[in-house]
Fold:
Amino acid sequence: MCDIISVTWRELPLSLVEQNKLISFDRGNGEPEYHFSFREHTPRLPVWTEGQLLILPWAGYCPKEALEAGRWAQRQPIPIVVPASLCCDRGIWFLVREGIHGILVGRYTYLLTEPASHYYRIMTRHERMPVLIGESI
Amino acid sequence: MKIDEYVLMYTNLIGHIDSDCFYVSAERVRAPHLRGVPCGVLGNQGACVIAKSYELKAHGVKTGMPIWEAVKVCPQAVFIKRDFRWYEVISRQMLELLQKVSPLVEYYSIDEMFFDANELGRIYKQPVEQAVFTLQEEIRYEIGIPVSIGIAPSKTLAKLCSDSSKPYDCRTLFTTDEEFLQSQPVGELCGVGWRSEKKLQRLGINTCLDFARADRIAIRDLLTIKGEALWYELHGEAVMPIVTRRPTHKAIARGGSIGRKSKDHARIIGWLTRNTERLSEALNENRMHAQLLTLSIQYEDHTGWGQVTKLDEPTSSFDDLITAAKNMIAHMPLTKCVSYMHLISERLTPQNLIQRSLFEAVSPSPLDQLKASINMKLGRFAVRSGDTLTIKELYEDEANDYDICDVSGKMCF
Structure:
């Protein structure tokens, strides 16, 4: 379920790129992208929180239903925005227009997920999808 | 030679604009980081590629290919959900720009337009063969869409010119050109499908030049008057005019896939209701009443079922249409899952030419009119029928509100 997030070079300040030793990826159009993969040994995510763009540890996924039912309340989650221009789920790269909703628990980030729409399920063959900002797939 | 002399020389020029991979280009307008990236736009189900960028095409991905096959040949490809509402916005911008440089514009399809090219020289103060490149640049700069343009004495030749200029080039023909026609297979002609192509090939007609040199009467015998019109057009005689307004519909249909296939009666009624809402809206937009309503169903095993109802009065009223549609669907065997549904209205008459009854309500009804005015303000389907509540995904995704057939005014699908 959305295990790689791609951010264009324009969205990440150079200082953040250098500080976090991010390696760029070229999809063939000469516009570097930065990939954040959950499969990495120490997965990380870019997040907007409190008006700041940070790169923080990616701890996993949080079902939106559980969050709304209050099952994460004890951990005092803080809503965050994960900037993304593309996402990859089961090898399918798809366009993301604004970003993805997430939460921050301490210094750990979680991507919010919800049951996949019919369209998303057919596209990726996955039962859950990321909670996208301002759009649905 | 002065510019005015150029203008006077070319009196019967028709232009054809064809957008290069239009859906992908439209997506790139709002997502510029996709430029140069292999991209595919997915269809209504999210399963098949309905449009592809040239970069994706270079990997061997074809229109209609399932996404899981496309990913195998191009793992770095990016896929995008279709958004016909956005494509219409871009298409209308192109139409508007073109109407500024030409007095006659035909909205042929969402990504193709014919226009009277005789004014190009005067407007851009350049010879036509240069002005066409200026127009191409202007469209790219103002709207962000790369287009190929053909200019020729007839629509058929203009379309051949633009098709052969893809991607992103222009070709101007002032008279018919044998060398050019020789380079074009006869199947490239708009109106010559694969069956006609086979028939022509049996007579040794393989290229457009062969077609133009063939006996006109023989072409008419083989391909009717439509083929004969092509013959004239290839000789540079414009027999197909630029049509600036769509001719009156003979039938209006709405429908398509019902999302995931289903046997659930409430869900099927939901789709029937949504399709009826769309049909009623389309009839009112075209100011038409229908007297015949056909319901056509396709099951998951590709078998079909259908029924026709003659309506009591010519109508466009949602209430009249849904009553008839529900009466028909009550007879539908529901032993298999339904995949597709179409509602087709026929025997159309203009709304203002109906003999009004003393006893029947006027269509569109006041309720339909109120609904239409609210939806015009708040967005399509802001006010909708409760029966559609069973189709949850319709409300979760605004893109479901629009389909390619909802782009009105274009000449073909």
